[in-house]
Amino acid sequence: HSLRELVNGQGLAGYDLQLTEQGRDLAYAWGQYLIKNTDRAIQHCISSPIQRCVDTAALMIQGADGIHEAINTHTIEIVEQRLLVEPGSFVLDIQQAAPYFRKQGALGFINSFVNNALPGMKHPITGVFDVLELLYHTHPTQHQGLSLAVSHDTIIAAIVAVISGQTQIDKSDWPEMMEGLFVWFEGENFSNSKLKWIWRGQKHELVIKDFQNK
To answer: Which residues, including other chains, have CB under 8 Å from residue 41's CB and lie 6 or more apart?
Structure first.
């Protein structure tokens, strides 16, 4: 999501924190930039149900719509997906996991998750696999299509670390607000597909079957 109100202390950013005015402008501008520089059209959108994520998605779609109005991107429904909530996609028992989030903060918590060191959490491969499968099924089906998924820095940090084989995330690895991960798949079905992604200008790939069997 885009720039939000700041919070003191560590732990999970409250679900009630909204986008700042600068954050709203940035989301709109990023939607414009994405379409101008990729020659693609947003065809589908999923989002964490948290309001700042839904607002980010809506503003990006508005920005994109200003570039190619004929494609009617403004008619796209923003489908809310609980798998994109932080840290929901990775949690099995929030009562067990929540104290660790408050104690360790976001960076420490995700480092513990990546190393499978927390109670009440999915195995990191399973947690990330579930999100990747969701993304696969929202993959654009039309030529030059783009699917938009709006989530949280914790979710992106964990996904990038796990698919890259990292066991330690530093502050410099942490996604900025509005920093995007480009993901696409090649293959007729998810379990036999190849995942490709671009993160901070570097292109990577892995075979889903190999990833699942780690």
So the answer is: 35, 64, 68, 71, 73, 144, 145, 146
> What's residue 136's pLDDT?
95
Contact 161, 114 (CB under 8 A): yes
Report cis status (omega within 30 of 0) of the bond before 87: yes
Do 150 and 48 touch, CB atoms closer than 8 A? Answer: yes
Token representation of residue 82: 């609980």
**CA 210/CA 14 separation, integer angstroms:** 36
CB contact at 8 A, 38 and 184 = no
**Is residue 123 packed enough to be buried (19+ CB in 10 Å), middle (13-18) or exposed (0-12)?**
middle
Edge to edge, what strands does the sheet with 145-150 contain? Answer: 78-80, 41-47, 145-150
Domains, in order of start, for the chain: 21-212 (3.40.50)
Pairing relationship of beta strands 41-47 and 78-80 according to DSSP bridges: parallel
Over the stretch 160-211, which tens digit does the pLDDT of each residue have? 999 999 999 999 999 998 999 999 999 989 999 999 999 999 999 999 999 9
Compute CA 186 distance to the chain's CA centroid, rounded to the nearest angstrom: 19
Q: Over range 102-128, report the average pLDDT.
A: 92
Q: What is the DSSP string of 54-69?
A: HHHHHHHHHHHHTT-G
Residue 207, by phi and psi: left (phi above 0), alpha (psi -120 to 50) or beta? Answer: beta
